[in-house]
Amino acid sequence: MLPALLGWHSTVVQSGSMEPHISAGDVVLAAEFGATQQVPVGGVVQYTSPAEAEPSGVEKTRLHRIVAENPDGTFVTAGDANVEVDSTPLDRGQITGQARLLVPMVGLPGLWLGSGNLAALSWWSLLTLFAVLVAVFGDRPSKLEDEDQDDDDKAEEDGDDLPPNAHRSRRWKTGAALAIMAVLAALIMATTTAFSSAAFTASTANASNTFGTAADWTPPTITLNSPGTTVRASVALTAEASDAETGIRSVAIQYLPPNGAWTTLCTTTSAPYKCQWNTASVPDGAYGLRAIATDNSGLVTTTSPTQTTVANTFSIGLEAPLDIVRGNVALAATLNSPGATAYAVRVEYSLEGANKWTTLCQMPSSPYSCSWPTGSFANDAYDLRAVAVAGGISTYSDTTTDILVDNLAPTITMNDPGTPLRGTSTFAAVAADAHSGVAQVQIQYARTGTSTWTPLCSITESPYSCRYNTTALASASYSFRAVATDEAGNSTTSAPIANRLVDNTVSSVSLDDPGTYLTGETTLSASANSTSGVGSVRIQSSPAGTNTWITRCTLAATPYSCSWDTRTVADGLYDFRAILTDAVGKETISASVTSRRVDNSPLRGADVQTVNGTGTAGKIDAGDTLSFTYSQQVNLASVTPGWAGADLPVTLRLRDGNVQGLGTGNSADIVDIQRPGSTVNLGSVNTKGNFAKTKKTVTFSATMRASTITTAGVPKTVVTVTLGAPTSGAGSLRASTTTSAMIWTPLSSVTSTTGVASSVAPVIESGTPDRDF
């Protein structure tokens, strides 16, 4: 009872998955788990396993050990007796207590009662009763009791009755024994609040245990048919569900009102899985729809939400054009529930945020459509809305904001690649666009005397350059030019660079750039050719600027590449070159690749990851997380002054790659973390995606916290930033469709717990490239 007074609660263990430390029938006392308490990696916790994670489809209480933390903030659990970890990750919110005290075997009676083992329960009851009776009646009489007994014996010899006190003493002892039994039973049953079903998973190291598989491990399949983008009155909602193993038990169809919770519209148990939705019973607005299928084994599948708009009262909508437009743009308005009323419809425009509206076009009858001649407008950002007028009453659509008009083509200049061109050469151009930004630069070539231009390479990020192996071209005279295309689709072609000779009839050699930062095993590669044949290629390095060359490998055949362990040299800047020796012994030296940094600092960025919350995939919004993982534990005060890792309010800043001073382009928006009045030394992340509109900046309120994960026995610090609502620029957000890997550039201001500065080598996001956020 004392632990109960301290706020602890107890759990009877039902299986042997935690043996040899915890066995079936043991009672584990657990303390409440606070909202700010650090999750005990390596400790035993009590947690709730949701129905969808259980083969039976029923929520259960489990008691397992946390063995690791995942990069996404979830945790890996396992039973001590299990060979493999649990299949479902554990979320912090599922933890209901941390194990504090083990009471062996005391929960066996409750376990026997719950499992119907009446034989064991009966033996325990008899033995316990016997023990209590011995304790009460089996004590040795005191001297006073001996004297009382002598008096009683004498009274009996004299024919007298026993004194009344003797009978009362015996009744009192018998009652006390029964009361103790009742209290023991009550304590066992009343103070045990849960049964832990910490079942075995996969295989087990305890050979004496056996287990079987469920009849159905495959969840059902289900799809919900969209009723359309706009609905009114009564509409049929239809789902299609199937389960090849145990069959469908039920299908529930639900709707999500604005700022509300999912509400079940109907539950059906047989096909067709269909119900009518009387939309007149709910307010107009945007709604989510989903269907949930449950099979006869209890497995559940939920569809992704489908969006629709309820419009039972009259409204007008404007179909939004693209974020960036040029030329003549088609505009269309839609009237919802107009009835028999005749409406005059027009489209109005205003400079972004000015709220000064001017008629753009009139649409006297259905279909309500017109063309917007953006060529007669200044290149700027505009807001649009549609207006329906009847009987002197005007109804306005939602405003479509920040539509960028861009009819101005970009500028571009082709750099002279030089002549003659041999081996792998660099081709580059300089491009700029004042409004929507450069989307792509394509470099083209044409053989002198012809007018057929052929793409040589396409580049989407500044600097607009590429390396091209000219041995793919026949030896001849060529012209080169560049074509720049902006996000609106405007394009400009540079003046050609004419009469540049490609001549690969002599020996040529070039060294591929190994990268700005070199760590661990690095590949060094060269391209070489000679009309007389290549004898060998040597790849060399030198401390930057010293011209002290050391051969790292000698290669006799293609590919001319080798692996170099950078840990064999001191950290610092190095130059690289390749030397071709042809078949007749003549040497050709490549141009040097200079000032490449070897950096094998023990503290460095290990990974950067994002997780989408509950919002739109590919769009940065509230609930998303951004995690920075270091290779070791760091001094958190070096991340931001005075920080120990607890939740800290910060600001996440998202900048379009075309913002002044960045110059990374449309598909390389930049994210960094800020803190009012102080610094956050997490560096910056190139998202490699287009999440903000052109030249826009968006800020979010956010919370930053630190945690520790252990990988291969090495503890590492993970800094996780969880986004809140946008604090500025919300209208400038957009969903990125790019599948790519982010690049995080750490800062050397962050140090390890032993004072080692972090490497500033960029970190590429691990895993399969995705849309992020």
From TrEMBL:
Record-linked SUPFAM superfamilies: LexA/Signal peptidase (SSF51306)
Gene3D superfamilies: Immunoglobulins
Tree of life domain: Bacteria
Keyword Translocase: no
Annotated TM spans: 118-137, 176-200
Keywords: Membrane, Transmembrane, Transmembrane helix
The UniProt record lists the keyword Transmembrane helix: yes
Region (Disordered): 144-168
Compositional bias segments (type: Acidic residues): 145-161
CDD domains assigned to the protein according to its UniProt record, in alphabetical order: S26_SPase_I
Pfam families: Big_7 (PF17957)
Residues spanning the signal sequence: none
Name of the protein: Signal peptidase I
UniProt source species: Paeniglutamicibacter terrestris
Lineage, opening ranks: Bacteria, Bacillati, Actinomycetota, Actinomycetes, Micrococcales
